[in-house]
Each structure stands twice: as structure tokens, then as C-alpha cells.
Amino acid sequence: MLFGTTAATCQLHRLYVADVTTRNERLRYLGLLGAAAGLAFILGPAIGGTLSSLFGYSVPSFLGFGSGFYKLGFSVFLLPEPA
Q1: CA 35, CA 32: separation in Å to the nearest integer?
Q2: Is 12 exposed, middle or buried (CB count within 10 Å of its CB: 0-12, 13-18, 19+)?
Q3: Residue 76: partners with Cβ closer than 8 Å, 6 or more residues away
């Protein structure tokens, strides 16, 4: 259940960017979000594989949970309400 909650923040960030940017800037910032997601797909497995070979399989799982939970907390508590 918590994995779905933390994964839902990706759509929340896209919707937030669409709300707070002007029409001319929207594609640029959505492109930056897409580039960050692509970089995460590249670096995530590399970091997880390195950590699992050094410390075991539980460390990448806890790191993924922690980063998702941090992202959820950032989205809920630190993003200002769009005007």
C-alpha cells in the first residue's frame, strides 16, 4: 500500500509543474522532470546493484523506501499551494 502512495507523487509533481508554470515554460519544465526520471531509471539499478553486492539485499530496499517516503513528505509538507 505504501509503495503506491510514494509512486503517486510522480504524477503529483507533474501536475504541480503544469499548474505553477506559464504556458511557454511548461514544456521545458516537464521535459526536465522527464529527464530526471530517465536518469533515475539509469542510476537507480546501478546504485541498487552496487549496494546489494556490498551490504546485502535489504539495504537497497530500505534506501528505496526511505527515498520514496522522503519524496512523499516533501510533496505533502514543503510544496506550497499553487495559486
Answers
A1: 5
A2: middle
A3: none
